[in-house]
Amino acid sequence: MATFRLQGSRVLAVDMTGDAVKAKNGSMVAYDGQMAFKKMSGGGEGIRGMVTRRVTGEQMTVMEVKGHGTCWFADRATEINLVRLSGEKLYVEAGNLLCTDAALRTGTSFTGLRGATQGNGLFTTTVEGTGQAAIVSDGPAVVLRVSPQYPLTVDPGAYIAHQGDVRQSFQSGVTFRTFMGEGGGEAFQIRFEGDGLVYVQPSERTTIAGDV
């Protein structure tokens, strides 16, 4: 299995010995050794995945990188966060997924209004299996614990990903931006309940669900 490691906080180094990874198309910045690059349709899921993504609007253009040596990846100088999965499922915004072990399965999942944070309809990208994934964030990501005793409420524009036995619901009301006089209409927040982790970034993207 390929080895993921960070060089600084904005470059991902992946050491491969005949292994393969799936990465965001165009994210390779350097490599040594012998590497082969292949563009994959529909996020690496063939015709079915391509059709699903076209219907849901959850866009993800992926390339497969395979070989012997080290390949370095980056995405617009954003911060990179490593997530290790042991049979779990990670839910992540398509634009925040940088690289995964080739053995990890990617797909789409209906998650309700939360999927509209990037204008991506009602679906989000899923990563499932055993291996590592790298996700990016605008600024260093914060990993917040959700427990049965302590549910968590997140602004849609700051949400990146979540994992674990977590349920999400949506509530209208005042967002953090509204307190600053920047809101412009009915606003929504994401409420997480259960037991798991939620990844947020210290920056808000322009959203649809966050401020309608």
Automatic annotation (TrEMBL):
InterPro entries: AIM24 (IPR002838), AIM24_sf (IPR036983), Trp_RNA-bd_attenuator-like_dom (IPR016031). It comes from Streptomyces huasconensis. It holds the Pfam family AIM24. This is AIM24 family protein.
